[in-house]
Amino acid sequence: MKTIDRIRAILVADYQIDPSHLAPGARLEDLGVDSIGLAELMFTMEDTFGIAIPDEPLALDTLADVVTQIDRLVAAQVGTASAAVLSQRQPAS
Amino acid sequence: MRRVAVTGIGVLSPLGHTASDVFEAARAGRSGVHRLAIAGAHRLASPLAATVDFQGADHFDPPQYRLLDRVSQFAMVAARRAMADARCELSQTERARTGVFLGTGMGGTLSIDDGYHTFYGEQSDRIKPMMILKGMHNAPAAWIAIAHDLRGPNLTYSTACSSSAVAIGEAWLRLASGALDVALAGGAEAPLSLGSVKAWEAMHTLARMDTSDPTQSCKPFAGNRSGMVLGEGGAMLVLENWARAVARGASIHGELIGYGLTTDASHIARPSEEGQVAAMQAALAVAGIQADEVDSINAHGTGTQANDGVETAAIKRVFGRRAHAIPISATKALHGHLLGAAGALECVLSLLALQRGVALPTMHLQQSDPQCDLDYVANIARTGAAGRTMLSNSFAFGGTNAVLALRAAG
Fold first, then answer.
1. How far apart are CA B46 and CA B201, in angstroms?
2. Structural domain of A17
3. Most-buried pick from B45, B182, B206, B234 (CB within 10 A)?
4. Domain boundary among B217, B247, B277
5. What ipTM was reported for this prediction?
């Protein structure tokens, strides 16, 4: 499953966001994911993708931004080969 | 001083989810106490609790539910029910000066417990980001304000077992002075984590299990009392300026006529007869009534050796020889000790007792104690005995004594 689809699945399940609103350019704020919601989303991303999100500001305005950052962190921290394996894991609950 | 009506009641308690159910269970002497079924309960000497049959996920959307400790869930659902019961429409202007006054002793202790278990117990750094927001004591009151758009004072009181009596009293003061016309006031508590119960057990305050019937383990004022049983739940009241309530044709459950608040300033845990006497006398003075006008009392009545003897002595000091003629109810035998929410739940039961004219029984009172020799309405409710004016006592570790004076409507 592609990164964006896995993030979409989490946003639909945990935040009850209509899938039709989850275009790559959708802004998180418009989706109702505020700063607190983003902290929680990042926590879930760490579990889901097996990464540690650094404690530094990330440019995360849109869904596409989240995908870009997650892919970058997976590549840096997990490695391309294992990232492919990780991407098959089910999202953490 | 302006009169204050109670126009809305919302409860979630070990005795039921509506005011009528809670009252009927208390009247019939049905206990909400049972064996506590949580992981690790075998590590407790006396695994007992009075729990609420409640699944938070049934009441909130998932995005909000994940932000709410159980204590906030109790508070919000109780507030929602109280507002619905009051049928109180608030204008934008009124919302700007409608307050929330909430008492809780332990706040979001389940979330704090969960986070520390992760960090210390599991040696994991994966503490959930919502732990602070779920655990903070003022979260329940804040969520109520958000849910109902109430932008007046939003205050949380944490004075242990008198927290919600203080919250109701402090709200009453603001309505009586005219500073506010409407307030939501009450309390919530969700203290039943394994660590929390074990900590209460370590203080030697909890009741031994009655092996013949665990539901009867809490025995206020009885010779064989051995302590209290922890409970959980929430109770919220809509307090409303009397004239406003009458003008809109509200159904009035009763009147809050006074509030006494004193501090022992002596011992952190040992109850003080002086402090309790002073609190009852203060409530009478503020209400502008004489001791002989009090028809019945809802006692703090925890079932501990220390409280029940001291409270009995304090009642005798306040009411003199007439103390023996006043029906005294200790309902914690049935709903357990809701700590910060206890005063609010007992205020609800007292209002309903006045409304229905029934003095509620003190259950499990089979063995007498020479030190506790008043009329505790032992084991059987007494119809027609509640009268028109009641005191509801709440005394706390830390020495904060709060007494609410209540009167039947009409």
1. 8
2. 3-86
3. B234
4. B247
5. 0.75
Pair B45, B204: CB distance under 8 Å: no
Nearest-angstrom CA–CA distance, B316 and B300: 15
Q: At what angle do helices A3-15 and A35-49 cross, to 10 degrees?
A: 130
Which helix (H) or strand (E) element contains residue B133?
helix B131-135
User: Using CA atoms, how far apart are residues A17 and A32, in angstroms rounded to an integer?
Assistant: 8
Domain coverage including residue B292: 258-407
- The sheet with strand B4-12 has its strands ordered as B154-157, B98-103, B182-189, B233-241, B4-12, B254-263, B400-407, B389-395, B296-298, B328-329
Q: Which of B63, B129, B130 sits opposite A16 (nearest CB)?
A: B63
**A contact set with B (CB within 8 A):** 13-16, 32, 36-37, 39-40, 42-43, 46-47
Residue A76 lies in a domain: yes
Backbone angles phi, psi at B199, to 5 degrees: -65, -40
The number of angstroms, rounded, from the C-alpha of B342 to the middle of its chain's C-alpha atoms is 2
Q: Give the Cα separation of B301 and B294 in Å (integer).
A: 18
Using DSSP's 3-state secondary structure scheme, residue A27 falls into strand
- In this complex, the residue of B61, B63, B129 whose CB is nearest that of residue A39 is B129
Task: Provide the token pair at B349.
Answer: 């039961």
Picking from A11, A18, A43, A44 by the largest number of B CB atoms within 10 A of its own CB, the best residue to mutate is A43
Which residue is closest to A44 within chain B, CA to CA? B128
* pLDDT tens figures, B144-190: 999 999 999 999 999 999 999 999 999 999 999 999 999 999 999 99
Band of residue A35 on the pLDDT scale cut at 50, 70, 90: confident
